[in-house]
Amino acid sequence: MESTRKQLIDLLKEQDSHISGQQLSEALDISRTAVWKHMNELKKDGYEIEAIQRKGYKIVSSPDKVSKNTLQWGLNTKWIGQHLYHYPQVESTQDIVHQLAKEGKPHGTVVIADEQVKGKGRMAREWHSPEGKGVWMSILLRPDLPPVQAPQLTLLTATVLANVMDKRSALVPSIKWPNDILVHHKKVAGILTEMQAEQDRIQYVVLGIGINVNQEDGEIPSMIAHKASSLKMESGEKWDIQEFVQSILSTFEKTYDSFIEEGFQEIKQEWERYGYKIGEKVTISTMRRDFKATLLGIEADGALLAKDEQGEMEKLYSAEIHWGEGGYHA
Ligand code: BTX
């Protein structure tokens, strides 16, 4: 059922003119009544479908609504989002993907929700995920990589989000180490990477992406309003969530495939291009000392590289960084 719907969407997408029920039924190897039933399901999703006798079906307009169909419609990817689950409300998309991973669902499976009531941040923090206002999605990855390389996937995802925001708006996003996306010094997106691994191989990774998209002034909880914002609040424009998700998924697929083929170097450069305060001086507190240092970039293991005032290099894995401007702290 699921793959037939996907094939039907693909067939209609390829067509500029009408395509007959007969052609569809032959191509999909289902009865014409089944074709008609699928069409009705698409209409329920808000597609406007023109049905003309002896000519067939044609999509007249696609809905401005997030659903499995609207997301897969026009999604130009080979493996990501080919298995896609959309829910109006969930506790957390992360948990659902863990479950699907255990059931053996493939690399690239995506779960997206309109609302999360128990959205998770890192280290058991909460992630506010109000209905219809953002992208709350998790991606299942089954990379053939050793666990030490998992942080690279998080850094890769941050570059994908920054790239897509950059391309689709006049906003200038930056990536605050390790992986928050900031616009005008405020956090608009976060990434949560969870992994199941054996000693030397990753079994699977659940990559959670949370982006504040269409919240308005006053819709960010007051506790975090000083350090969090949405793309709409910063750009002054409402964003089309469905198109935004499609472009994240297709950019993700391209970036991931070239990362697997060519390695981390390109990601590192992209990350540093968007890196928040890279090349600038900040104050850093570690277990050993407090010091001023210039941030230089990232290392292949995900560490942040800094140079102190005596010229000594420090690789930081966990440290408190006093970012200064905007008073941002995680
Ligand atoms: P984080 O630990 O970096 O950020 C969590 C912190 O950010 C919170 O403690 C709070 O201060 C602040 N915060 C909470 N909600 C928001 C928000 N909507 N916008 C900005 N700041 C906020 C970042 O964790 C990782 C977030 C991943 C979220 C995705 S959504 C899909 C998937 N499902 C799920 O449950 N989590 C991931």
From TrEMBL:
One of its GO terms (cellular component) is cytoplasm. It comes from Halobacillus salinus. Biotin binds at residues 116, 187. The keyword Transcription applies. PANTHER family: BIOTIN PROTEIN LIGASE, BIOTIN--PROTEIN LIGASE. CDD domains: BPL, HTH_ARSR. It catalyses: biotin + L-lysyl-[protein] + ATP = N(6)-biotinyl-L-lysyl-[protein] + AMP + diphosphate + H(+). Its EC number is 6.3.4.15. This is Bifunctional ligase/repressor BirA. Belongs to the biotin--protein ligase family. Keywords: ATP-binding, Biotin, DNA-binding, Ligase, Nucleotide-binding, Repressor, Transcription, Transcription regulation. Acts both as a biotin--[acetyl-CoA-carboxylase] ligase and a repressor. SUPFAM superfamilies: Class II aaRS and biotin synthetases (SSF55681), Winged helix' DNA-binding domain (SSF46785). GO terms for biological process: protein lipoylation; regulation of DNA-templated transcription. GO terms for molecular function: ATP binding; biotin--[biotin carboxyl-carrier protein] ligase activity; DNA binding; transferase activity. Residues 69-260 form the BPL/LPL catalytic domain. It is an enzyme of class 6 (ligase). The keyword Zinc-finger does not apply. It comes from the Bacteria. NCBIfam families: birA_ligase. Residues 21-40 bind DNA. It holds the Pfam family BPL_C.
